[in-house]
Amino acid sequence: LNEFLFYYLNSPFIKEVARKNITGTGVGNLNVGAVRLFNIKLPNLNTQNEIVKKLDYINQNGQMLIDSYHKKLEQLSVFKNSILRQAFDGDLIKE
To answer: Residue 83 to residues 86, 89, 91: CA-CA distances in angstroms?
Structure first.
């Protein structure tokens, strides 16, 4: 499956293998010959489908959590600014 290969090639394991195979100075170069030597373990198609389904689920829920976190940070910032504005306007302490 293309999706399985995408996840596999973006895994920390393969990224580390690629990093170790980069040659040259300055901007590194990953030789196609080195990539061909990567040991890609392909489980059967059913297992690939299950792995992709689970990773998609994790990614979608992870993104929802990230979006929620950013929304809460934005709300907190608005609340903080409101409190500061009230404090400097003298509205927090009524005599």
So the answer is: 5, 10, 9
**Paired strand residues for 29:** 23
Contact call for residues 10 and 51 (beta carbons, < 8 A): no
pLDDT tens for 33-79 read 777 777 788 999 999 999 999 999 999 999 999 999 999 999 999 99
Residue 44 in 3-state DSSP? coil
In terms of Cβ atoms closer than 10 Å to its own Cβ (0-12, 13-18, 19+), residue 93 is exposed
Q: Where are the alpha helices (DSSP H) in the chain?
A: 2-9, 12-21, 32-36, 45-89
pTM above 0.85, yes or no: no
Please count the other Cβ atoms lying within 10 Å of the Cβ belonging to residue 4: 19
